[in-house]
Amino acid sequence: MERCAIAESLRLGERCGIRGALLLGAITRSASDSRQVRNRGPRMIARHFRQPVSSMAVITKDIRLGLLLAARTKSQAPVGKASLPLFEEAERSGYGPLDSGAVFQVYLDREKKRGERRTGKRARKDRRRR
User: Fold this and answer.
1) DSSP state string for 1-69
2) Fold of the CATH domain 2-115
3) How many CB atoms are located within 10 Å of the residue 114 CB?
4) What angle do CA 114, 121, 6 make, to 5 degrees?
5) Cα–Cα distance, 21 to 26 (Å, whole number)
6) Cα Rg for the chain, rounded, in angstroms?
7) Domain residues of the chain, as ranges?
8) pTM for the whole thing?
9) Cβ contacts of residue 105 below 8 Å, gap of 6+?
10) In Å, what is the CA distance from 128 to each residue of 18, 111, 124?
11) Helix axes 20-28, 35-46, angle to 10 degrees
12) Tens place of pLDDT for every residue, the chain, 130 residues?
């Protein structure tokens, strides 16, 4: 679930024109730093998901089990409920065997499907040419 927050933060930063490495450096020097940020962040920036630390399929299964446990104990699990669709979408896209950080790719895929414009310096340059 924290992978979704990391992916979202890094992709938002990229779309604002902030280099991934710069943003990741800022995050790791803040109160938001964590083992997951240090492990998954560089993989997300490099789009390197082929050597899984924990696969998308395993994490998706774990989230489903957590939600089942929450339902049985009448506990709240809004973060699990919010993140499960992203992981399921990643699995449907064929990312199940990849590292769970490939949830980042879901953001890229959604942008591509929507035909969203690039952002950052390159996008500004492209807009000036028009």
Assistant:
1) -HHHHHHHHHHHHHHTT--HHHHHHHHHTSTT--HHHHHHHHHHHHT--SS-SSBHHHHHHHHHHHHHH
2) N-(1-d-carboxylethyl)-l-norvaline Dehydrogenase; domain 2 (1.10.1040)
3) 8
4) 60
5) 9
6) 16
7) 2-115
8) 0.81
9) 47, 49, 90, 93, 95
10) 19, 22, 6
11) 180
12) 899 999 999 999 999 999 999 999 999 999 999 999 999 999 999 999 999 999 999 999 999 999 999 999 999 999 999 999 999 999 999 999 999 999 999 999 999 998 865 555 555 554 444 4
The rounded Cα 12 to chain-centroid distance in angstroms is: 10
Q: What gap in Å lies between CA 62 and CA 85, rounded to an integer?
A: 13
Using the structure block, give the residue that is written with the tokens 């993140």: 83
Instruction: Copy the structure tokens of residue 29.
Output: 């020097």
